[in-house]
Amino acid sequence: RLYFDEISYEVVMDIYQMENPEGVIVSMGGQLPNNIAMDLYRSKVKVLGTSPESIDNAENRFKFSRMLDRIEIQQPRWKELTNFESAFQFCNEVGYPCLVRPSYVLSGAA
Question: Among positive and negative, which fits the CA dihedral 55, 56, 62, 68?
Answer without folding.
Answer: negative
